[in-house]
Amino acid sequence: MESRLLEILVCPVCKSSLRYDRQRQELVCRADRLAFPIRDGVPILLEGEAREINPASRTSSEPPPSGDEGAETSQPDSRS
Fold it and tell me: What are the DSSP calls for 30-47, one per residue?
């Protein structure tokens, strides 16, 4: 994917930047955890065409989410 094009493309849902996953031929929005396919060199930036990304299935080259993203839900205190 051409770097100039990647600089101007944004997520159609939240308008944040997209990361190019060359291996899967997808543009990834980390904020929404969506991956938009690239077919025949054309990014398909339609929410209905995107696949949801499970945070547990990140590739080893992808950095962990920052902030509260991916934080586990708190368990109730077992002390009575």
Answer: TTTTEEEEEETTEE---G
CATH number at residue 40: 2.20.25.10
Residue 63 lies in a domain: no
Q: How many domains does the chain have?
A: 1
| Assigned domain for 69 exists | no
Domain extent, residue 41, equals 3-53
| Secondary structure (3-state) at 56 | helix
Q: Does the global pTM surpass 0.90? A: no
Q: What is the pLDDT of residues 23-69, one digit of tens each?
A: 999 999 999 999 999 999 999 999 999 999 987 755 544 555 444 44
CA-CA distances (angstroms) from residue 35 to 7, 60, 73, 78, 79?
17, 17, 24, 39, 42
